[in-house]
Amino acid sequence: MSNAGQSADTALLMIDIQNDFCPGGALAVSDGDAIVPIVNRLQARFSTRILTQDWHPVDHSSFAANHQGAAPFQMRTMAYGQQVLWPTHCVQASQGAAFHSDLITDSADLIIRKGFRPQIDSYSAFFENDRQTPTGLAGYLRERKIGALALVGLATDYCVYYSAIDARALGFEVTLIEDACRAIDLDGSLATAMDDMREKGVSLSDSHALL
Length: 211
Ligand code: VGL
Ligand code: ZN
Known about the structure:
Layout: E1 10-15, H1 36-43, E2 48-54, E3 75-78, E4 81-84, E5 110-114, H2 137-143, E6 148-154, H3 156-169, E7 173-182, H4 189-199, E8 203-205
Parallel strand pairs: 1-2, 1-6, 2-5, 6-7, 7-8
Antiparallel strand pairs: 3-4
Helix pairs in contact: 3-4
Zinc ion is lined by residues 54, 56, 62, 86, 89-90, 115.
């Protein structure tokens, strides 16, 4: 756990550190930009760095604006299950979808985009929200013999959380670096996510243990 940063087969997985999840963005996570300097320092500790990028078409079904009479943060039943309706965010090629301008992105080995199919949202870096359509990340990690992940990014209780539990279910070791994440926290979603991650064997750590 505490050597997550030293092991050659551990990747740093940086989730959705994009303008729309930072203050001033369309789905701003409180204090979201505060993680950027921490994540940048952490990057030097890992030989493999992977970024994810939420990347929606403008007609995406997770946007409240695409459902008549719906407001952001309401729930909707989709073909694949319950879905939060979000403010329009991370539209492909928009400034909101760009990575935070201070985030180091040049040294990433891989950028994995998700949420690009109009009819289905994708919180996790591994599976879309039907919990079965793969993004390809598991195969990439396995081929590269990467067995462990350190997770940072936005938001702790959505995309970071689903990435963490899917990684555990797929057999990866997972360490969440708590101070390098920030949450949306809708109706207690942060506490629920933290409890579930602990139960599923996600190790909790802090950047000070790695830097
Ligand atoms: C996210 C809600 C919608 C996230 C992405 O990155 O946590 N949350 N799209
Ligand atoms: Zn999204």
